[in-house]
Amino acid sequence: MTITITGTREIERILRQLGERAPREAAKALYETAEEIMADSKENYCPVDTGNLRGTGNVQQPAIGRNDVSVELGYNADYAAVVHELLDVYHPVGQAKFLETPISQTDITGKLAEKLRSVID
Predict the structure, then answer these.
(1) 75 forms bridges with which residues in the sheet?
(2) Would you say 54 and 46 are in contact if contact means Cβ atoms under 8 Å apart?
(3) Measured distance CA(109)–CA(91) in Å, rounded
(4) DSSP labels, 59-70
(5) What residues contact residue 107 under an 8 Å CB cut-off, 6+ apart?
(6) d(CA 93, CA 90)
(7) Contact (CB, 8 A) for 40 and 102
(8) Confidence bin at 79 (pLDDT 50/70/90)
(9) Concatenated DSSP letters for 10-33?
(10) For residue range 13-55, what is the model confidence (pLDDT) as tens digits?
(11) Rg (alpha carbons) of the chain, rounded to whole number
């Protein structure tokens, strides 16, 4: 699953103010946001039987490209994708779509703007 966040006017304004620091600060803000989403996923949504699946959740360090910044997050268990996608399986703890749900419920743009504003203030 790939999510593309295009800058709101506020984020674009802040990034211009940051100048050369913009890629580094954007990467930091995006990484922190991804870590928050992963923590929410593990705590509130990830199915738990043995705890192995939850233990494989991770956020990779940000990659800074020429015109973009990206962060990958996910679960590394061999069966993670199957558990994530099977909607008709009952989980005593957790649910299907255990990563997609917290991503979709997070105002990523708002969080990024807030984190970037704090750098300027």
Answers:
(1) 57
(2) yes
(3) 31
(4) EPPPEE-SS-EE
(5) none
(6) 9
(7) yes
(8) very high
(9) HHHHHHHHHGGGHHHHHHHHHHHH
(10) 999 999 999 999 999 999 999 999 999 999 999 999 999 999 9
(11) 16
